[in-house]
Amino acid sequence: MDTNFFTNVYEVVKLIPKGKVTSYGAIANYLGAKKSARMVGWAMNSSHTLEDVPAHRVVNRVGLLSGKHFFETPTKMQELLESEGIIVIDNQIQDFEKVFWNPENEL
DNA sequence: ATTCTGACGTGGG
DNA sequence: CCCCACGCCAGAA
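^ Those are the sequences you sent over. The predicted structure of the assembly is below.
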């Protein structure tokens, strides 16, 4: 089902532990569509209205807050991450590898 | 129906 | 190491 892909993305994002982050590609890979990482981001765009989906915990493969511009305020995403113990400098997550949460590794 | 763009990722120069 | 181009899929003009 096409809508299932979006729902699946939401489910995975919801499962991201507090203080951890993941990447669009990791989610896409977990869903079996690693080449469609863009769709993951697109799915988040629809999810931005949903409060159950912590989109701020999803960043690109480099740990860059690429989607912060889509939040209510450009600084909201960084503040949310920092409030969870994640250090963000210049839209870049510090110790990205440490706070990285891989769906395939945990699920 | 066609074209472009986009919260990405990988590969090549 | 930095820059450019391609692939993927979906939605908007």
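The helical segments of chain A are 2-14, 24-30, 37-47, 76-83, 96-99, 103-106. Residues 3-100 of chain A form a domain with the Arc Repressor Mutant, subunit A fold (CATH 1.10.10.10).

Shout if you want it in another format.
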